[in-house]
User: Fold this.
Amino acid sequence: MANFFEDNDDLLFRFKNLDLDQIIELREDNFSEANKFGYAPKNIKDAKDSYERILKIAGQIAGNVIEPYSAETDEIGAKLIDGEVVYTPGTKVGLEAMKKADMMGFTLPRKYGGLNCPMTLYCMAIEITSRADAAFMNIFGLQSDIADTIYKFADDKLKDKYLPMLCEGNVTSSMSLTEPDAGSDLQAVMLKAYQDESGQWFLNGVKRFITNGNGEIALVLARSEAGSEDGRGLSMFLYEREEHMTIRRIENKLGIHGSPTCEMQFNDAPAHLVGKRRVGLIKYVMSLMNEARIGIGAQSLGIAEAAYREAKKYSEERKQFKQTINKFIPVSEMLGNMRVKIEAGRSLLYESAVIVDLKDGIEEHILKYPEEKKRYKKDLKKYTALANMLTPIVKAYNSEMSNEVANDGLQIHGGTGYMKEFNAERHFRDARITNIYEGTTQLQVVAAIGGIMKGVFESLINEYEEKNDFSYFTLYHKQVQKMADFVKEAIDFIKENNDNEYQAYHARRIVEISTKVIIGYLFLKDAKHSERKKEILKYYLEFAMPEVKMKSEIILNKTESFLENKTTILENKN
Amino acid sequence: MSYKIIVLVKQVPDTKNITVDAMKPDGTVNRSALPTIFNPEDLNALEEALKIKDKYGAKITALTMGPPNASEVLRKSLFYGVDDVILLSDRKFAAADTLATSYALSLAIKKIGEFDLIIGGTQAIDGDTAQVGPQTAEKLHINQITFVDKIQKLSDREIVANRTTDYGYETVKAKLPILLTITAEANTPRPFSVKKTLTYKNAISLIEKHDYDEEYLQSNNPNKPFIITTWNHEDIGAEIEQCGLNGSPTQVKQIENIVLEVGESKEIDNSEDGFKLLISELFSEHIIG
Assistant:
């Protein structure tokens, strides 16, 4: 009887040390629903107790219901039979359990049947379920992102009809954005939306690579403004499954086999406009994507956790040269490395999720009490800038980390890890999508670099310095500060250089070393609560410091020979 | 139609996680040394009731007899989705065997009133008697089907269910009201409902230890915890002589610890001769034949 929340000490540590008070206050609006809904909290302490109970239930379902099916789900995969997607038995059982447990409206308001949980808690649930089965998370996790988008932008009529359906868990959903010629560049979306005389909208065209496109509800990005060519001609539509959309095929993928990836053909399919025309991409999709990106950060972490546990267990059982292989330094070092990366990713994820929650909470609060706008103006600006920078940072770091950890996990298994009988190769394959979908790492760098160059990174560091007393660990505090100085120097150099190409060339390095510094501060904060975390910090800094210094030097050295000689280098003609 | 269902649940020592102090020197179970859990087959019984509720609608009442802390299985029953819970608790009920237990349970059921189905687990993992269900049905003069692993049909008048036997299964048709005992194979219990868990997490029986102010608990404050209905022997009109140890004719003569030991293992060749040897050994040990 494994409980994937209760058996994970680092996650419990994170949960215990989360600062949720302000988020709960904003979300619960003076606990006004305590008398209306039996399950609404009555005060902050009560809310935290409820959150813990929710995670325990999620952990129980993940460990006992979902995980036992994960290998089978991977082996048989979702299928397309007579034009309809059929989930694996494990996916069906998992969805039914989640539905029975009321988990399907995780973040939605109670009036629609939701649990009104903050994003941070939702990310913990995603991490927990992804550890059990990364593919399952796609169907469960999508739900909240889509529901939240409908909640934020659709009119009351759509909200009242569709949100309760999503909360009850009788329907699943998809976000239908990608097309054959519009992947990273969604401005190129061609799927046509048009209106008849009565004002009814219809959709015509093809969507491709759509996770769970078979779901009963789809949010579809479509070109509503005939003749337009850019992102401003695109609007968001809500489509409810009927006979004018067919699933043409599902993809045969490297991993996440339980999650059907569909090609959807819309043939004059009736749909509802969500919110306003022309802002489908620039406003709604951006919001949807940002939530989904944090979610992928959590999914990546769950896969990494699973991969680490498998590798550690295997290394403690496998004997070579008359001893278990975990006794060999090259193996144990890999495990140590994996461990630190996972804990770094976890700190980073929940730090960012808390900031996103604060931003969302303030936005919602202002919507309800416009007179409070002035009071929260400064905070909203701050948290919006931080959320916009940290979301792509988390997505980039955690998805790359997940790949590295799953790769090392397989390596520790040796030849056995390459075989299908063990879970290591599945984790390796499942992790591989995380740094691709919802925006590749390369795109996350583009999304994060702007904030870093505009001083958001520096303001975050300044805030860590102002709000914390690190005197309990001066030596290592100084090291983190020094690391931050290396990064600031590199940022300043790029600014002074004022060369867009040079910035684009080194953007990934800047994002990577900024991330290292932020993790350094987060580990410093953790070290206050745990002796073990002090050791983790020490170990982390031994490697992070030289790495940051090296990458900073690369930038300061005006390293650009590749830029100058790209063609010669790539052409391979001597 | 909507059914009235009573589910019999029991808090039991976790016999799968036994520690050294599990037995007292006098041979009785040392309950305080064992962690307690929801009797596993009672979870299957509860799931069967919840399935009926999902399909046809039902009001489910969970009933348990036990010490004050047996409230825990009732709280859990609420988390799973039952509508009401009753704790039968009294020092006079202590040390009851199956006869005294079914006596008290049958009186409590009469007090609850009308019902269509009583569902319990086939047996509890502490006593393993599988007698409480059948005896309760007898005392209530109602039909019973034991060892049920599948309910095939249910209507307002009758039920068709499969009961497992040593040799296969029997399909039994019977009139309601009826008592069913359910096996572990019948279903997989669902997870807690989050909404129910948060709603009932503070539910208490007034005989449990708690920090609440009595006046607050008696008030109409909508935020006060759900109070678990608790009955003693007087509430159900039980005769003291028939309760607990007094009402238990079972005499425990002696209890001995049996430690199952693995003997020496023998490797047998994967050959014709090896198989012959294996079969003759199995015959001589009376394991087969």
User: Anything to note?
Assistant: The radius of gyration of chain B is 22 Å.
